[in-house]
Amino acid sequence: MTDAPFSFQPVSAMEVPRFAGVPTFMRLPFVPLESPHIAQVDIGLVGVPWDTGTTNRPGARHGPRQLRDLSTMIRARHPVSGVEPFMARNCADLGDCPVNPADTMDTLDRVSTYFKSLKAAGITPLVAGGDHLITLPVLRGLAQNAPLGLVHFDAHTDLFDSYFSGCKFTHGTPFRRAIEEGLLDPKRMIQIGIRGTRGGDDVEWGLEQGIRIVTIEELYDLGLDAVMEEARTVVGDQPTYLSFDIDSIDPSFAPGTGTPEIGGFTTFEAQKMVRQLLGLNLVGADLVEVSPPFDPSGGTAWVGVSLMFEILCLLCENASDP
User: Are 155 and 247 in contact (CB under 8 A)?
Assistant: First the structure.
């Protein structure tokens, strides 16, 4: 037995090589919900290994494990802002949220219950998917008092009503369901990078609700800085969620995803846009749709977890003091 204080610092690469040891998100300590140290956690990194909402290429259920593995390369200090998130807040890997790969509705209930527990514990979640349907139950867990705003990076709106003659719960429907359930305020939503074949009722319905939809063409016509300034105006200073689909990035940089669309932005442009969200009232975030079978080398997961680090630095702004 030891009375030494619990350490929330990542394992040092000067003591244990980055390729060694048990991989956790960013080499942080593993603190499950039942741990006596859970009350000390400010920001919890959580995997949701589930992709039964996928309608095209599967595999995102394996995303959290590969993201953890690649995250051992994450450093402790942001190279531009100088933010040191692991010094600013108590961050921990909380493990994976319970899921049921054989039952969509049961999984939605399990995930929402889990994130209600995190909210009750005062923990800000940074979530690794999983397909984009996981965002719906995460929002059910977080938006219990009032609808949230949303900054959403994606190649697709995910605003469809249904797939395959009435299936309401797929990775193409989460934000429509979230608006219908009062989890999101559509007038405080902005979607950035939308492209691919368009013209369906998803865009039309979204515009009718008041969602600001920025296509990839408009993003480049207006410029990244102008769009991100507009994003800040759209969501304002009220509680907001950030959702980043890896397919918003061009597949030449991130091919390991289920529904790739050419003509996306670069990894540096993604970093630049996320960095401009500093100071928003973010209550949680996710990075979804990394599918390791389509990029076994881990390049896409490295992009994904690098963006998770960018987002983590944002969340440190609003998480409770350690």
Answer: yes
Q: What letter does residue 72 receive in the DSSP assignment?
A: G
- CA-closest candidate to residue 170, choices 131, 141, 202: 131
**Residue 255 contacts residue 184 (beta carbons within 8 Å):** no
CB 247 within 8 A of CB 171: no
| Nearest one of 88, 87, 94, 86 to 118, comparing CA atoms | 94
Find all residues with CB under 8 Å of 188, minimum gap 6, and list them: 147, 148, 149, 150, 234, 235, 236, 238, 240
Residue range 161-200, pLDDT digits in tens: 888 888 898 998 999 999 999 999 999 999 999 998 665 7
* pLDDT tens figures, 139-166: 999 998 899 999 999 999 999 888 888 8
**DSSP 3-state of 95:** strand
| Angle between helices 299-315 and 63-70 in degrees, nearest 10 | 80
Strand partners, 312: none
Task: Decide if 134 contacts 49 (C-beta within 8 A).
Answer: no
Nearest to 98 by CA among 148, 121, 122, 64: 64
pTM of the model as a whole: 0.94
The C-alpha atoms of residue 76 and residue 309 are separated, in whole angstroms, by 9
Torsion region of 321: left, alpha or beta (phi above 0 gives left; psi -120 to 50 gives alpha)? beta
